[in-house]
């Protein structure tokens, strides 16, 4: 459920007509709905009602906007960060360092040190080598790093290959059958407090079955580790719940997910940690775009919009579907190819799709763009970095400026030896 609805024939973000925002800020522009974000956060927490001890860390990578993080901090969320930059954002948003989980397969020594000094709550180690390095850094600083070991459970998440992370051949975590040994060796190191295991098998999961299989395997491993005499007090179950992108998509509800988790983990006796991203932010945002012009094509006309693959990369990267709807629909429909202005054919949002009829100058939105949208934007073709707006009832505010090409140009230099 979201708060982007038609009122009197005009698409609104909560109580704000989208044309008003486009007139003031221009397009393309992302719009986030505060009420939708809040609702998703609360529904996710409610789904975990059967889990007595828990910590929910929002996957910052899905939407790192400062205002979004502040809102989620107020809802009691911590942050799952995968870079020093994300850690700084979470701290800047007012998140408590203890509530931050530092994940990521390639944390540098400088990032580990910064995380330690900031008092990060948990480091999710992706290898024994990383654990050894973190132990040395922590011991040198006279600090202790609370850690979980990320395990690759070798479970097929059944999602797009580029966002699947839990198969043995993926780069993430340590091999399942090596994990207990690594855990034992790392537990013996000064500077580390090994306290748990972490797992994340992929994103946009349409079924709970692979998650349940992975969690069950993790429970077995947890018992093995306890039997060998090491402590396990925290289990981090990652993120991954899918969201509907188009009519007919059926995704697990947070309530069903929570019930499954409670059933599988009921006798674990640990604090459970979660790293949801898309399920919180995905349907909380839209990307507003304006049709530049419509030109004829061989089988269908091309609707050329002012948003492009640099603003919303998902269709180009993963052939992802984002619903395209007119801001002021007439009721008429057309079959069209929706493309951006960038000079390569991957800058295509849809081919041969039946959409609301639109013409030059009309506004439209790509839906379900709140996760992995603005955060993956870039400036390819020397385009601006797309701005972001948050709406709250009848209020709205720019929460990220449009970074103009001139600003980016100003950061470049021609060395004098070229002249
Ligand atoms: N935890 C870890 C360790 C992760 O790697 C991810 C996502 C999450 C949590 C959050 O997953 P979520 O709940 O959002 O599914 N750019 C891609 C998605 C990449 C996901 C990467 N990892 C896309 O646009 O579909």
UniProtKB/TrEMBL annotation:
It is an enzyme of class 4 (lyase). Keywords: Amino-acid biosynthesis, Decarboxylase, Lyase, Lysine biosynthesis, Pyridoxal phosphate. Its EC number is 4.1.1.20. Its cofactor is pyridoxal 5'-phosphate. Residues 32-370 form the Orn/DAP/Arg decarboxylase 2 C-terminal domain. Pyridoxal 5'-phosphate binds at residues 240, 275-278, 372. Specifically catalyzes the decarboxylation of meso-diaminopimelate (meso-DAP) to L-lysine. Homodimer. PANTHER family: DIAMINOPIMELATE DECARBOXYLASE (PTHR43727), GROUP IV DECARBOXYLASE (PTHR43727:SF2). This is Diaminopimelate decarboxylase. The lineage of its organism: Bacteria, Pseudomonadati, Pseudomonadota, Alphaproteobacteria, Sphingomonadales. The gene is lysA.
């Amino acid at each position: 459920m979201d708060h982007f609805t038609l009122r009197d024939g005009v698409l609104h973000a909560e109580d704000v007509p989208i044309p008003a925002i486009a007139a003031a800020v221009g397009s393309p522009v992302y719009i986030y709905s505060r009420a939708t974000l809040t609702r998703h956060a609360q529904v996710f927490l409610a789904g975990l009602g059967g889990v007595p001890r828990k910590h929910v860390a929002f996957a910052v990578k899905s939407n790192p906007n400062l205002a979004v993080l502040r809102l989620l901090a107020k809802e009691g969320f911590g942050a799952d960060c995968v870079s020093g930059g994300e850690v700084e954002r979470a701290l800047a948003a007012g998140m408590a360092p203890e509530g931050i989980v530092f994940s990521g397969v390639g944390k540098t020594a400088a990032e580990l040190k910064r995380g330690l000094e900031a008092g990060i709550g948990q480091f999710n180690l992706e290898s024994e080598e990383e654990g050894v390095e973190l132990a040395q850094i922590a011991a040198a600083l006279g600090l202790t790093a609370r850690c979980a070991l990320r395990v690759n459970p070798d479970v097929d998440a059944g999602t797009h290959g580029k966002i699947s992370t839990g198969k043995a051949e993926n780069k993430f975590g340590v091999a399942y059958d090596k994990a207990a040994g690594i855990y034992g060796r790392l537990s013996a190191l000064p500077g580390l407090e090994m306290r748990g295991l972490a797992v994340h098998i992929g994103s946009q999961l349409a079924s709970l079955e692979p998650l349940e299989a992975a969690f069950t395997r993790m429970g077995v491993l947890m018992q093995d580790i306890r039997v060998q005499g090491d402590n396990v007090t925290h289990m981090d179950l990652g993120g991954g719940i899918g969201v509907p992108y188009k009519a007919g998509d059926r995704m697990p509800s947070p309530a069903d997910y929570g019930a499954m988790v409670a059933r599988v983990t009921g006798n674990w006796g640990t604090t459970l940690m979660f790293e949801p991203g898309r399920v919180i932010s995905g349907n909380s945002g839209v990307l507003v775009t304006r049709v530049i012009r419509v030109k004829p094509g061989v089988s269908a006309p091309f609707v050329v919009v002012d948003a492009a693959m640099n603003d919303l990369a998902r269709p180009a990267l993963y052939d992802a579907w984002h619903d395209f709807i007119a801001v002021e629909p007439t009721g008429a429909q057309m079959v069209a190819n929706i493309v951006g202005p960038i000079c390569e054919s991957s800058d295509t949002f849809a081919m041969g799709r039946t959409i609301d009829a639109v013409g030059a100058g009309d506004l439209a939105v790509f839906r379900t763009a709140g996760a992995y949208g603005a955060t993956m934007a870039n400036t390819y073709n020397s385009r601006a970095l797309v701005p972001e707006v948050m709406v709250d009832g009848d209020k709205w505010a720019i929460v990220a400026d449009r970074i103009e090409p001139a600003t980016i140009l100003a950061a470049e230099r021609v060395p004098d030896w070229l002249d």
